[in-house]
Structure formats: C-alpha cells, structure tokens
Amino acid sequence: MLLAVISTFIAFLPSLQNGFTNWDDNLYVTENPMLFQWSVANLKAIFSQPIAGNYHPITMLSLFLNYQLSGADAFGYHLVNLLLHVLNVGLVFYFVWLLSKGKKWVAFVAAILFGIHPMHVESVAWIAERKDVLYAFFFLLGLISYLQYRVKREQGLYGWTFLWFLLSVLSKPAAVVFPVVLMLLDYWRYQQSSSDKKRWNWQKIITPKIPFFIVSLIMGIVTIYTQSPKAIGAIDTFTFFQKIVYVSYGFVMYVVKALLPFKLSAFYPYPNSATSLPTIFQIMPIAASVLIAGIWYSWRYTKVVALGMAFFIINILLVLQVLTVGSAIMADRYTYIPYIGIFIILGYGFDRLMQTRTKTIAAIIATLYIVVLSALTFERTKIWKNDEVIWTDAIQKYPHSVVALNNRGAYFNELEKLDKALTDFNKALELNPKYFDALIGRGNLYRKIGEFDKSLADSQLAISINAKDERPYINIGGVYFQQQEYSKSLEATEKALSINPDNADAVLNKAILLSIEQNFQASIPFFTQHIQLRPSDAKAYLYRGIAYQNLQQNQAALQDFNRTLQLSPQNGQAYIKRSESYLKMGNKAQALQDAQKAKSLGFNVSQEYLQSLQ
Fold first, then answer.
1. Which of 60, 108, 226, 427 has the greatest number of CB atoms lying within 10 Å of its CB?
2. Mean pLDDT, to the nearest integer, of 294-320?
3. What distances in angstroms separate CA 534 from CA 347, 530, 586, one per listed residue?
C-alpha cells in the first residue's frame, strides 16, 4: 500500500503548481461570498443554497474551511485535493483487501491503478472537483464499514456506514447509488461463500438498506430540482437513436480508456449535429452489445469480471447521458469511483498470473504499464496549470468544441489579449451562432474596443436566447456608460440587478453610477455589497474611499485608501487620494509623501499641489 501511496503523490506533484481556472473555480471559490468570512449567515447559506446547479454542502464546507486557511492562494486547495486522493488510495487498498478476503496483489493493483490513472487527473487537479475526492473518501469509508458490519454484525458499524453514506451524498449526489452498491457487495460475498447453509434472502438483504434508499430518493429529487432546467437537457434534445448511440459510446469509451487512456480532454463535445454521425459513433451500439455479451459469457468461467463490471456500471450509469446532463458526451471525472470495479478485475487477473510460471514476465509488464500510466498522469496534471493550457489542449483534440473555444476566449479577454479572444469567440459563434456564453464574451470584448453597435447587437441576441440571465444587461449598461448616457446605463444595470441582486459587476456599476450623480450616500451601500462579494477588488475600496471623502468622512476614506494600497501597492490614484485625506486631516508631511509617491508612479500630480504641501 505504501508504494501505491508514494507513487500517487509523485505522479500528481505538478498539480501543486497549478492555479485556479475560469471553469467553475470562480463560482466555487474565488467569487463565492459564502467562503469569505466566518458568519452564521454564510454557514446557513452553505447548507441551504446550491452552487452552480449542485447541492453539496459538505464539499462547500470543506472549501469554506480551506479559504479560512488559504485565502485566494490556489496551492492550499490543490494540496487538500491531493491529500484526499492519497487517502483514497489507501482506502481503496483496504476495501479491496476486505472484499477479496485478504488478496494483497488484488488490493495493490486496484489501489495503485486508482491512484496513478490519468483519467483521475481531472478529479484531483481541478479545484472545483473537490466534490469527487471528498465524496469518494466518505463513500469508501462507508463500503469498508459495511463489509466489517457484514462480518461482525455490530449495530455500531451499521450506524457508521449510514453516517459515511450521508456525508458522501452531501458531498456529491453521485453517491445516491450507494445502497445499490451495498446490495452488490452482499451478492459478491454470497458468491465467495463455500457454505451451502448460506442462502440468499432478499428480505434480509433489502430491509437494512431502506433508510439508505430513502436518503438516495430525497437527494435524487433535490438534485433534479436544483439542476433542472439549467443542466438537464430536454427529453427531445436528441432522437431515440442518437440516445442509444451516445450512451453506447460513453459506456464503451470509458472501458477502453480504463485500459488505454488516450486523447484525454477537459471537455468531450457531442459530434457536430449539422453533419451525419461519424462511423465511430454508429458502430458503438454493436461494440456495447459485444462487450455486454462478453461480460455475460465470462460468468461461466469466473464471477469476478461480471461483478467488477457491475460495480463499474452501477456507479457510471447515472452519467452515461441516459438523461442528458450538461453539454459533454463524457467526462474523465465521472470515472473516479466506477473504475474501482475495473481495477479489481485487473487485480484478480494479475493475482492469478503471479501464481503461474509466467509471473516474472507478468510482473515486468505490469511494472512497465504502471510506469507509463504514472508518466502520463505526471504530464496530464500540467495541462491543468491554467485556462490557456487546458483549453488549448482540448481544442487541439476537438477543434469543433464550442465550449473550449469560448472558455479560452474568456481567459484571453480577462487578460486583455483581445485579438486572441475575438478569434476564439468568432470561431465558437461560427460553429454555433446562438451560443449564449460566447455572445456574452464577444459583446463584452466589443464594448472594450469601442465597437458599441456590435456589442449591443450581441447582447440583444443573447437576451432573445435567455432573458433571465443578467450578463447581457450588464454589457448594455457598460456600453451606455462609455457613451456617457448614464440614465440608459442605470436602467440596464437596474434590470440586471432585478435578475440577480448579487451580481458583483452589476452592484459595482450601480455604485459608480450613483457616485457620478453625486449621490455618494446612496452609493456607499452598493460599494460595500460589492466588497463583500469580492473582498480583494482594490478599485471598489478606492471608489468607496472617494465617496467617503466627498462626504467629508476622511477617517473612513483613509481606511479604504489604505486597503486599496494593500491590494494594489502601485495604484497612483489611491496615493493621491490618500494624500488629499491626510491634508484635510492636517497631516501635511504624510500628504506630501503620498503625493510624491503618486508622481513617481507616473500619476499626474500638479506642481502647485506639491508646493502647497511644502
């Protein structure tokens, strides 16, 4: 087990150098006001509000605690993800060891493959996937305590099993299959029994699982309610034949990538609907049928293949796009728990080979395979360094991926690499002219470069697609603001706030517009709200300080200017504004020092003002 743990830690070391992404990390951490400070209100929100269409309060609680220790430093989050993954490797070893009744080779192979497999990089190296490593941690503890309960029949172990399940399902709803997995474990142990006295009794098997099924049902309803309609597609999104094809494709490719993890991507788009299905998709129902037939046929020779695949299928079934969820046909992260079933099969196969004359050859081949997988994982973790690397990798593998093009465009837009951003947005909208997020991004970009008519056109088209999203109205408000049509800008901003009162950009825009109207007293609560939503935004402190300064509240203004300079030490405007506050408070020496600092930073400071301070 120690070798599996050490190998896993080394394979994932590059993840500790990675940062945040613009793919949900902002929603979960960097722009999530629930995490920013200890308060009863925030703790209540964690347990009562879904995030990004998901209800997983234990995951959010872990991120909340992480933020208290790490703040906005990505290293702390990556470290916790990696440590949880390493712990899960140990739990997989112990679980398989118990399930196989002490077969160490089976447990070792399952554990090390679980630890170093490239398909698991997404679950570990992506901060927003804390839910994967956390739910798996509790899920595995629950399976272990249940196997112990099956042997010892102690009610305390049954209670622990239920507790671990509850924590798991509150970390990620994927754990709703837990009671079905328990029934599979019952049948697995039944097949291992050599005693004819042991009989399968459905009543005794199902009755203890009833509380688990009740929790799963409740959580399933909550999940459907929170995800629909944003994440869950309409029933008629695809034809019946397309559904069969896509489900078959996911099923077969997950199995194939378990053995040969090639062409991995952060995003796997559906094939282009404007053309006929590629041949690889058309043959997938046949491939899936052959695979299932092979599993069925294996039963006459060994039960392990069928039972291991049953573990895989039970855990992967909900994400095989039987019900369309999201815009990806498959995802690496969905394999985190399911692959344990396949790794158990490989472990049993290796265990048998180690009992034959070919054990030396088998050990050499297995070692080379593990080394190759470890190297692939080591390199794959580097792909998650930042958004440019992630989405460039995805675009190289799937050039028609609208999501990848848009996400890279958004990253370039944020970095003010506007030519590159425009190229990506244009390409995304060529592939899908009504892709909402790309319209938002390009509209924002057009506003930045002063192409106001194009910005308004993109924003209006976005509104026609989804009038319940505040972002197009924020773009429109920004256009009118730059054109100095402040009443129209305020109207669009008010519309955005009516849709989402907690949108930080809209809140800040409202505060600035009130300040322009000289309504400084009314602007301060909005500046304060924005700061609560984005506590590291230096300009919000600066603007609120200016508002306080205009209200002759110089001590409050001084505090905000100090905070601005803590966050942005090279901000010349903050120095000159703080200089003005010091002057009004009679501290000419400090006022002069700040004015000189502002001038040294290139800020335009009049000679008359400097002379008045000497």
1. 60
2. 90
3. 49, 6, 33
Tens digit of each residue's pLDDT (9 = 90 or more) over 437-464: 999 999 999 999 999 999 999 999 999 9
CA 305 to chain centre: 32
**Residue-wise pLDDT tens digits, 77-101:** 999 999 999 999 999 999 999 999 8
Contact yes or no for 182/146 (Cβ under 8 A): yes
- Residue 334 tokens read as 């969905």
Tokens of 580: 């003005």
* Secondary structure of 371-417 in HEC code, one letter for each residue: HHHHHHHHHHHHHCCCHHHHHHHHHHHCCCCHHHHHHHHHHHHHCCC
Q: Output the pTM of the full model.
A: 0.87
- 402: Cα separation from own chain's centroid: 18
The dihedral formed by the CA atoms of 428, 433, 439 and 442, expressed in degrees to the nearest 10 = 50
CA angle 500, 502, 508 (to 5 degrees): 110
- Tell which phi-psi region holds residue 71, choosing left (phi > 0), alpha (psi between -120 and 50) or beta: left
Question: Domains in the chain, start-ordered, CATH in brackets?
Answer: 2-383 (no CATH), 386-500 (1.25.40.10), 529-614 (1.25.40.10)
Residues 6 or more apart whose CB falls under 8 angstroms from that of 313 comprise: 338, 341
- The upper half-sphere exposure of residue 45, i.e. CA atoms within 13 Å in the direction of its Cβ, equals 13
The overall average pLDDT reported for the chain is 90
